[in-house]
Amino acid sequence: MPGQNLQCLKQDSRQGDVDTNVVQKLETYMQGFISAINARNFDLSSEAWSYTDSSFKGEAERPPGASHLAASGMSDLQSNVDMFRFMAEQYPDYHIRIFDLSTEVDHKAGKATMFWNGETSGLPGGMTFPSVGMCDFKLFRGEEWRCTSFRGARGPGDGVAEAAVGGL
Fold first, then answer.
1. What domain of life does the UniProt record list for this protein's source (predicted)?
2. Residue 74 is inside which H or E element, if any?
3. First CA to last CA distance, the chain
4. What gap in Å lies between CA 30 and CA 108, rounded to an integer?
5. 63-88: average pLDDT
6. CB 144 within 8 A of CB 161
7. Is 14 helix (H, G, I), strand (E, B) or coil?
8. pLDDT at 127 over 70
9. Domain that holds residue 118
10. How many domains does the chain have?
11. 16, containing H or E segment
């Protein structure tokens, strides 16, 4: 992504060699997910979201204030994307940046894990919070990598102070 200042640490945990093609592919998928959120592309049939598996489970953010959305916890892709849509609608400047990615590929098991550091900005009161995340990928039919899970943690607080949410 232009301007993202991505620094990628690439390693293959089984073979001891760098598998640049797989790592680059998976990191491109992650950049696509973030770009889609920042561009307000919440259409699950779009290319950005096509790299997730139907079994995907992600840790959705805690809905700020009064929300019809489910509480935090592992949920399907639609629920996760709905949370990002909610955040974007409530906070038009909502934006996610990734500073660095580290991807480990286990070819023998057909799995990969990606760790990232970033920040979420555009929240009430100009708040910006650091965040970290981890995504798991699985190789299907020996040829197709798909994201199967996401877990994240945000820096101080939960990202949205109750006082800032007000009458939501």
1. Eukaryota
2. strand 73-75
3. 33
4. 22
5. 77
6. no
7. coil
8. yes
9. 7-64+72-155
10. 1
11. none
